[in-house]
């Protein structure tokens, strides 16, 4: 590295904009292009070093060795304590800086956290990474964590990146599926989760998601430049997700070649390409070619480079000193420090949610506790966890408090094949599994773990290691458990005749065969799969039940494995507990009715049988290194269970819409619109004392759109012990032009009260926040309407209500002559999808089913409309019919044929003469054929005195 060059860009007393402009002006075009990859090239002649985006820090520093592991993000949000979440973010930020000082190349200061995708569907494989199904609460928690990461000084401690923009809740085919977002869902739900952290200056970077949105790759969304960047006056850095740029001309085929795709991405707002790991040459070549072909201008490159440099300047890279220089390379003083360990314990404790309690909890110093279950003596690391520096399991935490006995509750089996038993190597390094007629019985025993969804893992008793599949296809017992990006340690048990099974390797889809030398090896031919008989050596459920019968209380710890049957790249098929785990719980409860179920998972489970039968049920996300201590503190009543659900727990996956349907309004999804009776509602969580709500008062019963509503309520602890309550404020608009949420969280406050203590709380709501997106005029509107305030302990446990009115707007009938009717701005639809009107911007509607339609409510045609000009396309041709008031039987006012077009972007304007379009009516555009696309409708008035 050359000596630093002096200049304006090195003067911290000057504004960031001036410093960036100075540095940008010093760079050659080639040097500027070199800054557009994840691995930004050094510029030695200016003394500018290399820079890398992307250090994972979702719930602690990840992927860089042992570091403090806090509860998963869904667990942090379950504390309903933004200040605690901010403290966790700050601790994580300190550990990132410490590791950066130790290894600048390995630990960059641009962190890829938090995840603020609303948790629309609990089957999403990455559910544990988000905060809540409520976008406002997601924004609160995302802002808190980001603020902790970035620090309070103008110089950034780290540069937080919000993931993943936009409408990303499915892993299945995630790179090629389109999330269809009607305007209201986009504005009221999805964008609402991303805005707060950026608007507050807490997050300074954004990562687009892999999926498409309304037919266009999210990475190319015009919303990045047109909407998101308008939320802040600072330069917002936009980084691509890993290997997403290649998808634009690859899996997605959205552009013909990569230079074209990279040019489109830069123009759409991408500033940093995460492609080909640390090999930027190909990316830089595509950008250079795009410039040579005239697809990009140097000004486009400058805009992207300016944003990349602005973040580096704000991180203090070119300053003589930063506030964080004292965080030294001696990471032991920071990473997993005593203070961070205590914070991890407090976060884990406050994240635990008591779902049900018939009086069994808190435990009163029982003499003997049976600790049971496949998660009772282990802690799980998810894909974005740090490496656990130590692990306090449920068993270990409880053993500090009482006499414990342990049973894993997992079936132990032998696998019998033709010619003998499958046998495992006994040395720790493992070896190939082979069929043998000799050897110790223990070498033929396997513990069979059921992780749900038909996914099983096999742990050998010979050496305690898990069965995996090597690159050569040979089964070996050499792994500590299911792990890695490509999980190679899970199998399905395919049924064969007469009670036999065949093993199918989930990762490759290939079956396990028996080679001539007796070694188990994958085979491409299912017909040559080894036929195996599972012989029960010991029933895990029976052994656990026998143990439970000897104990005062049984604590059964069940849940998911974060890397199996629901993780990045894999969604869940259902919400049920794994069958073997459900059977274990029932057997233990039958043996000892004093059973506590502890669910440890990154997602909700439909524990309906447990809710009906088990006296106490708790849930925690995978809680990090202090999980066991936190659980023991709650079970024994040293701490109140302070957590509350941030997501609805349903009774069955049958209550959920299609995983790919993102229209929460039309499908009655999330607590906002769900009309059924959940197993456990949003906001639910019990404590060990009882609270009474009283004296609800509103600051006013009549408000204007620019007013603030102040809600006062008194909460009293009427129990016999101190406790924590999370007081939640919801509102409901009781009359509207459109479908409104049944309830919507507007505020909350955690309060801790001694027995008999009362406290009066004031929660405030800006009336402007009651606005919804008016599709008739393309803006937010506060409607004139009555509202209800609901205050309580959950979305379904409402204790007090009050009413108020808002003197807002009355939404008039649509005026079809004042502005075009954008097809995407319809009020209702059936048999259509939203799509991209052009590659660069705009939405349209495409018919997918013959007879599909879109509806525009209350269109005021006044004295009459003469014609409708429709912007349409169809590669096959088709017919559109315009009807009034009903899509099947309504009066036909016009029909038009759509000629075949070159492609669906080849929109042409066709004129449809109208007859009978007068007065106020609901207008239906009916797609008589699939494949017809409509982007807008323009109406012309009937001339005065004319008639048709």
TrEMBL record:
Single annotated GO MF: hydrolase activity
Assigned keywords, A-Z: Hydrolase, Signal
Protein name: Glycoside hydrolase family 3 C-terminal domain-containing protein
PROSITE patterns the record matches: CBM6 (PS51175)
Family note: Belongs to the glycosyl hydrolase 3 family.
Domain CBM6: start-end pairs: 819-940
InterPro entries listed in its UniProt record: Actin-crosslinking, BXL, CBM6, Cellulose-bd_IV, Fn3-like, Galactose-bd-like_sf, GH, Glyco_hydro_3_C
Superkingdom to which the source organism belongs: Bacteria
Record's keyword annotation contains Transmembrane helix: no
Record keyword Membrane present: no
Gene3D superfamilies: 2.60.120.380, Galactose-binding domain-like, Glycoside hydrolase family 3 C-terminal domain, Glycoside hydrolase, family 3, N-terminal domain, Immunoglobulins
Lineage, highest ranks first: Bacteria, Bacillati, Actinomycetota, Actinomycetes, Streptosporangiales
């Amino acid at each position: 590295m050359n000596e630093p060059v002096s200049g304006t860009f090195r003067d911290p007393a000057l504004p960031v904009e001036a410093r960036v402009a100075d540095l940008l002006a010093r760079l050659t075009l080639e040097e500027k292009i070199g800054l557009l990859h994840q691995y930004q090239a050094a510029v030695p002649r200016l003394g500018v070093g290399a820079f890398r985006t992307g250090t994972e820090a979702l719930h602690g520093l990840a992927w860089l060795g042992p570091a403090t592991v806090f509860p998963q993000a869904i667990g942090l949000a379950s504390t309903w304590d933004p200040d605690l979440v901010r403290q966790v973010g700050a601790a994580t930020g300190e550990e990132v800086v410490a590791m950066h000082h130790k290894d600048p190349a390995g630990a960059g200061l641009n962190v890829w956290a938090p995840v603020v995708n609303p948790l629309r569907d609990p089957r999403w494989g990455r559910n544990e990474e988000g905060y809540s199904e409520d976008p406002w609460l997601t924004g609160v928690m995302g802002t808190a964590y980001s603020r902790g990461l970035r620090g309070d000084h103008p110089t950034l401690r780290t540069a937080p990146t919000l993931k993943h923009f936009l409408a990303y809740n499915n892993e299945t085919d995630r790179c090629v599926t389109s999330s269809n977002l009607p305007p209201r869902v986009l504005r009221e739900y999805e964008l609402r989760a991303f805005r707060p952290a950026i608007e507050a200056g807490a997050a300074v970077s954004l990562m687009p998601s892999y999926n498409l949105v309304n037919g266009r790759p999210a990475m190319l969304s015009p919303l990045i430049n047109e909407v998101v960047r308008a939320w802040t006056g600072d330069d917002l850095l936009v980084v691509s997700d890993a290997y997403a740029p290649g998808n634009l001309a690859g899996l997605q085929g959205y552009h013909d070649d990569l230079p074209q795709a990279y040019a489109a991405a830069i123009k759409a707002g991408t500033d940093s390409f995460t492609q080909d790991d640390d090999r930027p040459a190909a990316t830089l070549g595509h950008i250079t070619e795009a410039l040579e072909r005239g697809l990009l201008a140097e000004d486009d490159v400058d805009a992207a480079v300016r944003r990349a440099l602005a973040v580096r300047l704000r991180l203090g890279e070119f300053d003589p000193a930063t506030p964080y220089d004292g965080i030294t390379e001696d990471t032991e003083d920071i990473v997993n420090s005593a203070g961070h360990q205590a914070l991890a314990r407090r976060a884990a404790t406050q994240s635990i949610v008591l779902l049900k309690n018939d009086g069994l909890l808190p435990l009163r110093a029982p003499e003997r506790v049976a600790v049971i279950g496949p998660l009772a003596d282990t802690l799980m690391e998810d894909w974005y966890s740090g490496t656990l520096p130590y692990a306090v399991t449920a068993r270990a935490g409880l053993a500090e408090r009482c006499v414990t006995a342990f049973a894993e509750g997992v079936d132990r089996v032998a696998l019998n094949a033709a010619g003998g038993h499958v046998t495992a190597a006994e040395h720790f390094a493992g070896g190939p599994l082979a069929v043998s007629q000799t050897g110790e019985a223990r070498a033929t025993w396997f513990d069979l773990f059921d992780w749900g969804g038909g996914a099983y893992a096999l742990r050998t008793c010979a050496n305690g290691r898990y069965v995996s599949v090597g690159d050569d296809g040979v089964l070996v017992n050499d792994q500590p458990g299911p792990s890695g990006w490509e999980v190679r340690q899970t199998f399905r048990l395919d049924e064969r005749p007469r009670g036999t099974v065949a093993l199918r390797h989930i990762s490759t889809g290939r079956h396990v065969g028996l080679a001539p030398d007796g070694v188990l090896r994958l085979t491409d031919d299912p017909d040559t799969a080894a036929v195996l008989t599972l012989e029960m050596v010991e029933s895990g459920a029976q052994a656990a039940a026998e143990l439970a019968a000897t104990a005062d209380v049984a604590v059964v710890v069940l849940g998911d494995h974060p890397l199996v049957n629901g993780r990045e790249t894999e969604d869940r098929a259902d919400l049920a507990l794994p069958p073997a785990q459900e059977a274990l719980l029932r057997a233990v409860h039958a043996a000892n009715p004093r059973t506590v179920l502890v669910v440890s998972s990154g997602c909700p489970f439909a524990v309906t049988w447990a809710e009906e039968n088990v006296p106490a049920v708790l849930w925690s996300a995978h809680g990090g290194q202090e999980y066991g201590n936190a659980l023991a503190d709650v079970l024994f009543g040293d701490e109140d269970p302070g957590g509350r659900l941030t997501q609805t727990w349903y009774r069955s996956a049958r209550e959920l819409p299609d995983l790919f349907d993102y229209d929460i309004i039309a499908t009655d999804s999330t607590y906002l619109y769900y009309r059924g009776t959940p197993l456990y509602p949003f906001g639910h969580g019990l404590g060990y004392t009882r609270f009474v709500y009283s004296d609800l008062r509103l600051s006013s019963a009549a408000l204007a759109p620019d007013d603030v509503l102040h809600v006062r309520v008194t909460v009293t602890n009427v129990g016999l012990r101190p406790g924590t309550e999370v007081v939640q404020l919801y509102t409901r608009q009781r009359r509207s032009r459109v479908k409104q949420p049944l309830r919507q969280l507007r505020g909350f406050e955690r309060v801790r009260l001694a027995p008999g203590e009362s406290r009066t709380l004031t929660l405030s709501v800006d009336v402007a926040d009651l606005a919804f997106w008016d599709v008739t005029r393309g803006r937010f509107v506060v409607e004139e309407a009555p509202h209800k305030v609901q205050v309580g302990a959950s979305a379904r446990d409402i204790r007090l209500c009050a009413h108020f009115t808002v003197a807002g707007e009355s939404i008039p009938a649509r005026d079809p002559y004042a502005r075009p009717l954008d097809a995407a701005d319809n009020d209702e639809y059936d048999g259509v999808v939203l799509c991209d009107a052009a590659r660069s911007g705009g939405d349209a509607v495409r018919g997918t089913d013959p007879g599909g339609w879109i509806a525009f409510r209350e269109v005021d045609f006044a004295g009459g409309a003469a014609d409708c000009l429709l912007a349409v396309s169809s590669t096959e041709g088709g017919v559109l019919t315009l009807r009034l008031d009903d899509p099947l039987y309504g009066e036909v006012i016009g029909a038009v044929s759509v000629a075949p077009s070159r492609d669906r972007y080849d929109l042409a304007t066709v004129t449809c003469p109208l007859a009978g379009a007068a007065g106020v009516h609901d207008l239906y555009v009916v797609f008589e054929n699939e494949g017809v696309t409509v982007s807008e409708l323009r109406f012309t008035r009937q001339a005065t005195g004319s008639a048709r």
